[in-house]
Amino acid sequence: MYNLLMTAGEDDWDSPTWSLSTGRYLEHTVQILRNRFEILSPDTVQQLKQMPALFAYEDFRDQPATVGRITEIQQLQHELRITLAIDPAVTPIPQAVLRTLYQDLDINTRNLEHCRTHWAIKDVDLVEVLVRANLINLPLLPPQPRPPKVFISYSWDSPEHRQWVALLAGTLRSNGIDATLDQWHVRGGEDLAGFMERSIREADRVLVICTEAYVERAIGRQGGVGYEHTMVTGELMRNVGTSKFIPVVRQTSRPATLPTELNTRLYFDLSPGAEYPTQLQELIRDLHNVQTPIPPLGPNPFQ
After folding, report:
1. Burial class (CB in 10 A: 0-12, 13-18, 19+), 31
2. More exposed terminus of the chain, fewer Cβ within 10 Å: N or C?
3. What are 33's strand-pairing partners?
């Protein structure tokens, strides 16, 4: 079996996450599989994550499909949000080639399935179909690692600062990091305190954007920043050795200032200046847990 996820959104599969209305889950899926997978229990979610996935675009987009895995499934009130990982060993499949495989992949063109955003489960061996079409030469598709999940904590200093934070979050997402941002993920009427708590709890890392205003509000426990920082402080007290919280400085004054609880932590400086590109790359490297290469230890020259 495999997951078929089809979207009309341009470049949707270039992002590490994708959302779908709950009503479109299991469309174009035979009844026996609908019965089996309709309740997203932990066991069902695990089965879905173990299946290979075909990430396709609706026919009119004429964009290549990709193959990979679903690495995380989040159930919200009216939608499902998935985290995905594309398999780099599988070359993207041009739309013209995919069209020739619709029948083998159980994609029903008579019902216009190829023109409908949905998530189906197909009782088809995806790897076998791709091997027969000379698109891959692997007997199995290995599991893919889940992209790092990052929450961004910041203060609403100004419209310009909010835009800067959104651009930073967009840059992280384009570099394979699943960044969560209130500007994108909070819906009207949603409880902000609950969103903050859930986002900090579920994130692998939390970026704390330390402007002068943020530091002042964090120290004074003012507003939303004060509430978020109280949660940060609580987790730091429970786990002193954690590296979950990363200070990111964006300040004009020098020396840089940090909230008391973070002032001994290594920070990245994304203030305007010549070092910005280097610091941004180092931050992305750190979030992906890619260590800086260490030169090999040579022999003692005096022996």
Report:
1. exposed
2. C
3. none
CA 118 to chain CA centroid, Å, is 20
Q: What is the pLDDT along the chain (303 residues), one digit of tens a residue?
A: 999 999 999 889 988 889 999 999 999 999 999 999 999 999 999 999 999 999 999 999 999 999 999 998 988 888 999 989 888 888 999 999 999 999 999 999 999 999 999 999 999 999 999 999 999 877 667 777 788 999 999 988 899 999 999 999 999 988 889 898 888 888 777 778 788 888 888 889 999 999 999 888 887 877 767 667 677 766 766 776 788 999 999 998 888 888 888 888 899 999 999 999 999 999 999 999 888 888 998 899 998
Closest Cα partner for 52 from 65, 35, 64, 41? Answer: 65
Pick the CATH number of 149-287 from 2.60.120.200, 3.20.20.80, 2.60.120.10, 3.40.50.10140: 3.40.50.10140
Spatial separation of the C-alpha atoms in residues 255 and 287, rounded to whole Å: 25
- Interacting residues of 110 by C-beta distance below 8 A, sequence separation 6+: none
DSSP-assigned letters across all residues of 45-105: HHHHHHSEEEEEE-GGG---BEEEEEEEEEE-SSEEEEEEEE-TTS--B-HHHHHHHTTTT
Nearest CA to 261 out of 275, 244, 278 is that of 244
Give the chain's end-to-end CA distance (angstroms, integer).
62
